[in-house]
Amino acid sequence: MKRLIYSILISAWIVCPLQSCANSGTRQPERADANETALSAEEVVEAEPVSTAEMEKSADALKIEALLSEASRLQAGTDITLFFARKFIGIPYVAHTLEVNDDERLVVNTRELDCTTLVETVTALTLCAYSKETTYDAYCRHLQLMRYREGRIDDYTSRIHYFTEWIVENQKAGIVREIQSPNPPFTAVQTVKVDYMSRHPQSYKALKAHPEYLAAIKRMEQSITGLKFRYIPKAQVMDSKAMREAVRDGDIIAITCSKPGLDIAHLGFAVWHKDGLHLLNASMIHKKVVDEPMTLREYLSKHPSHTGIRIIRINDKK
Prior knowledge:
Layout: H1 2-14, H2 41-46, H3 52-71, H4 80-86, H5 115-130, H6 136-147, H7 163-172, E1 176-179, E2 188-191, H8 196-199, H9 205-209, H10 214-224, E3 228-233, H11 241-246, E4 252-257, E5 264-273, E6 276-283, E7 288-291, H12 296-301, E8 306-314
């Protein structure tokens, strides 16, 4: 009976236009016999309930595969990264969605996003599209590889926490590359100095529960402290020929900052409009994923601690 209830759940999701995906990776509804009648009241009462976790997992799997199926039919030349990113506009901004399990495991949540999980979700979808993969399993494989050092899940400390390390590790894995030229507009250099997590362990659920993790976190911070990267200072973020040539639609934008102990303040995707560069991001201010109405130059000017932007490009299969 549990299988029947699960099948009903999947059928309900397929009603949505965006969820018309075959080969979902979960068990598909069995073909009903022509003489089969609806479940009786007794059968419904006796059926085992489907847990919320099972419902959410199946919903995420269906959504991912529906998006990948839709993307596989797009015209050549479509900006695939922005295609996926725009599909999440309106999704609620929710922080700490990865901190839901006592033991470390891969979390997939397309229903609630923060700036980092939006970037990871869209990047994993983009990589699937580039390699012509349309399954949920393939998506999870790409997501795990970029979220965890060398794709291995051990404990909380095996997850990549600072975005500078995320760039470094994913560049080594061939997933992304950081753009640091030409000069201009890449006229400034960021020297990374991070120690925020080790200085504020009480701000992190896992570090509060496992103080023994702190030593590994400190080693990780030391491994990226001192690294230097060229970036575009916010005074150079304008609608210019140099900027339009250096930054492409769909590039990942990492906003650098002057806050002690941190390297990156916020993330999103580059979107060029007629009036200049904008940021498609999971916004704490708007409380949802938005294509920011104001230009990125205006956005940066409203945040004194924001110093500029680093540019990261997802590698295609070429």
